[in-house]
Every structure is written in structure tokens, then in C-alpha cells.
Design a protein that fits this description.
This protein has helices at 14-20, 26-34, 38-41, 46-56, 87-98, 104-111, 142-178, 188-201, 206-220, and strands spanning 68-71, 74-78, 112-119, 122-125. With 221 residues, it is α+β, with helices and mostly antiparallel strands.
């Protein structure tokens, strides 16, 4: 019997990653990474078990963002239109981030969905129904999970900061106008900015801090 362990971060599935990032003891983590029952580890020499535990905690972490992935013969695309993100998607995303690693595969099923069509770099995703199966994403490589989270956290943070800047400029402009010739008609662009800001206010900022905290925790293990 041989103890086979992954040597690269991309060789670790999300299912194994969830165990590695949990509060489980090192023997349980080694069991998951080796893909064998914990009872089978009892037959290995102690020095080999100790080397195995040391190894799984020393694998260098990498991040690769993929806008399109394939799992079990199905093609999935990363959400490419944040303006089309529904309230249901925001609510589910927030819920999964509260206890992130146990629900990481469910979050992936929100951020990646089957494509209705694909043409070169362009694609259209199927509408979110909250009934999508998250099981296939347990096979997603760890480096792609990290890449997805970093991309999601960065792009959404940038959008929030951009909106804050726009609103600040709008408030200063409004203050200047009210002290002069009055307020101009409320235009389409202002309505769009206000609607986007209202939607983002419903999306707690702790989402970003939770993802960031999860990534920092991962990088210190």
C-alpha cells in the first residue's frame, strides 16, 4: 500500500481543500488528501505519516483565474455581467460566505453557471434558479477556486469604490448647484447610479472582508 499525495495546488480538488481548511486534525486532513479511509492510515509507519502531514501543509499555493471551465463534460462560465446579478444571487452569495469553506462549492455554483451558448471568448449563461447542482464543483481545482475568489473580490471591490467616488462627485456637484441656479432635472444616468448604489447597499461589505479573511487564513496555513 502506498501513500499517494498531491504535489501541486492545482492537483487538490475543492472537496479536499475544504477538509484541509477545516478544523479537523492532521490525520483526517492527510486521509482526505490521500483519498483513503482514516483506518487505512493506521497501517503506515509513523515517520511516513509525519512526513505526509508535513508535505500537505507545505504545498505551494497558486491562483489561476479561468472565465470558462469544464467539469464532467459540461461547460461553465464565470458571471460576466454584474449588473444582471439578481437579488437571489446576492442573498445566496452572502449566505455561503458566512461559513465560507464548507459552502465554497455552493458559491462556485453561483459564480459559475452552465452556458447557453459559447462563441470564442463570448458566452451567455443560463439564468440563475437557485436549483443548480453544486456537487460538480467539488472537483474544481484549488488554484482555480483561489483565482475565482480573488477576481470576484477585486472586481466587486473596485465597483463599490467606483460607485462611492461617483456619488461623492455627484453630492459635491449637487451642493454647488443648490447654492446657485437650482437643481437640474433628474436624468437617466443619475437614476442608474442611484439604483446601482441602492442594490449594493443591500449587499453587506462583510462579504468582501470575509473572502479576504478566508484567503489570508489560507495563505498562513
Amino acid at each position: 500500500m502506498r501513500l499517494r499525495l498531491p504535489h501541486r495546488w492545482k492537483d487538490i480538488s475543492l472537496a479536499k481543500m475544504q477538509v484541509l481548511m477545516s478544523d479537523a486534525d492532521d490525520y483526517t486532513k492527510l486521509s482526505a488528501m490521500a483519498g483513503m479511509p482514516l483506518s487505512d492510515l493506521k497501517g503506515f509507519p509513523v515517520h511516513l505519516i509525519e512526513e505526509g502531514i508535513k508535505h500537505i501543509h507545505s504545498i505551494q499555493e497558486t491562483s489561476v483565474f479561468a472565465s470558462k471551465i469544464e467539469i464532467e463534460g459540461k461547460r461553465y462560465g464565470f458571471v460576466n455581467d454584474w449588473d444582471a446579478f439578481t437579488l437571489g444571487e446576492w442573498i445566496d452569495t452572502e449566505e455561503y460566505v458566512k461559513d465560507f469553506w464548507p459552502n465554497a462549492h455552493k458559491l462556485m455554483a453561483v459564480l459559475y453557471r452552465e452556458m447557453e451558448w459559447e462563441l470564442g471568448d463570448n458566452y451567455q449563461l443560463k439564468p440563475y434558479t437557485a436549483k443548480e447542482s453544486s456537487a460538480p464543483f467539488l472537483q474544481m481545482p484549488a488554484d482555480m477556486v483561489h483565482g475565482c475568489l480573488l477576481f470576484f473580490w477585486t472586481t466587486k471591490s473596485e465597483q463599490v469604490n467606483s460607485l462611492k467616488s461617483s456619488l461623492l462627485e455627484g453630492a459635491l456637484r449637487l451642493n454647488s448647484l443648490t447654492s446657485g441656479d437650482g437643481i437640474p432635472p433628474y436624468g437617466h444616468s443619475q437614476k442608474k447610479t442611484f439604483a446601482a448604489w441602492t442594490k449594493l447597499r443591500r449587499f453587506p461589505s462583510r462579504l468582501f472582508s470575509s473572502i479576504s479573511r478566508s484567503l489570508r487564513t489560507t495563505n498562513t496555513n
